[in-house]
Amino acid sequence: MKIRAIIKKFLQGLLILAVILVLVGLGNWQLDRAALVKENNAAAKVIDPKIYSLKELATSTLPLDSRNVNKQVSVEGFYVANFKAPLQRDRDGVVSDWEVALLQVDGATPPSGILVARGLWADRLVNPEVAMSTKISLVGTLQPHQNDDRADNAPGVISRLDSSVIVGLVDLQLYDGFIAAKSESTRAEELVRERVVPPIPVSRIAGYYWQHISYVAIWWLMAAIVLYLPFYRRSIAS
């Protein structure tokens, strides 16, 4: 009987220890997520002066790596479609309609394309010399795709800056995210127009820094309660 009681207590102790380790581990996981949220949000505000080629930072059909968001990229290609993106908000909080073009990347195999926020929709006729046969060289910042619709999809209109909303309209492999153009040029000249600057991207990790910290406190408090319960029961029994 004594051996059975000892074994029972030993198993109960192992179970309590396992529960405590799980709860502490969940707290550490939330702590890591809080640190990652803080790190990613801080990194998004740091401007990397280097200009990368698009293929260095992204691959068509694959999700955009959050570490490459807001970095400057250069790419060449041909505009093959043009869209109105209504009710876009820039970094200063100004809401306006943007002109967004689909750039077919020059020399890409298989053929691929990426959305480019060129400027204001009201200025779409500023450069009438740009045609589908005109090769464009551009530099801009790589941005994540938008998740929330600003309008309804319609002919010539996209609800948000997200390649998934046009995937059925073109026979190209599309890049995730989009480029906010800072400069465009042809072989003849630079295309001068007012540019749009998107808001600073924030972390894609769900939640906010202090929300994760509160979860840390909750998980660790539960671990402390589980650790205290055997002593509480013993004190009642005595």
Short description:
This protein has 238 residues and is of the alpha+beta class. The protein has three helices and seven strands.
From the structure above, extract its key features.
238 residues; alpha+beta; OB fold (Dihydrolipoamide Acetyltransferase, E2P); 2 domains; 5-stranded mixed barrel
List strands and helices in order, with pairings.
Elements lengths: L1 H43 L6 E3 H4 L14 E18 L5 E11 L6 E9 L14 E9 L29 E13 L4 E2 L17 H29 L1
Parallel strand pairs: 1-2, 4-6
Antiparallel strand pairs: 2-3, 2-5, 3-4, 5-6, 6-7
Helix pairs in contact: 1-3
Looking at the overall shape, the CATH architecture of the largest domain is Beta Barrel
Average pLDDT works out at: 84
Count helical runs. Answer: 3
Major sheet characteristics = 5 strands, mixed, barrel
* Protein structure class: alpha+beta
CA-based shape: elongated
* Whole-number tally of structural domains: 2
Roughly what fraction of the amino acids lie in strands? 25-35%
- List low-pLDDT spans: none
Number of strands: 7
Determine the N-to-C terminus distance.
21 Å
Strand order of the largest sheet: 2-3-4-6-5
Question: What is the assembly state of the chains in this entry?
Answer: single chain
Order of helices and strands: HEHEEEEEEH
